[in-house]
Write a structure and sequence with these properties.
This protein is mainly β. It contains one helix and five strands, in the order ββαβββ. A five-stranded antiparallel beta sheet has the order 2-1-5-4-3, covered by helices on one side. The radius of gyration is 14 Å and the shape is elongated. It starts with 7 loop residues before the first strand and ends in a 7-residue tail after the last strand. The relative contact order is 0.23. The mean pLDDT is about 85.
Length: about 110
């Protein structure tokens, strides 16, 4: 069971599909597109970040999302290309986390 604040580490193949997810993965289905497994509100930015990683650009995402009960949380992700010794991009590393204790504004 995933706790808020734990990092979820996922290796994504060059087609954008989940190849491996660590034990703290949530809703990560091997073979499915990584961006489609991200929170709904974050999917467009996650898809764009994956496209950038495939051309060698790392990205950081932060998106306010809402769970099934309407409670807000912050979803953060770091997306980085994984490069071989020869300099070829061989996969993408996606590290994400959920933060539930959001600051409130008065």
């Amino acid at each position: 069971h995933r706790r808020a604040g734990d990092d979820c580490v996922t290796v994504v193949d060059l087609s954008g599909n989940i190849g491996f997810s660590g034990p703290d993965a949530f809703a990560s289905v091997p073979g499915k597109p990584w961006a489609s497994q991200c929170p709904g509100q974050a999917q467009p930015r996650a898809h764009a970040a994956m496209e950038q990683a495939l051309i060698g650009v790392s990205s950081q995402l932060a998106e306010i999302c809402h769970d099934d009960k309407g409670q807000p949380y912050l979803w953060q992700a770091d997306i980085s290309p994984m490069v071989s010794r020869e300099g070829r991009i061989v996969s993408v590393l996606a590290r994400s986390r959920i933060l539930r204790d959001l600051p409130t504004t008065a």
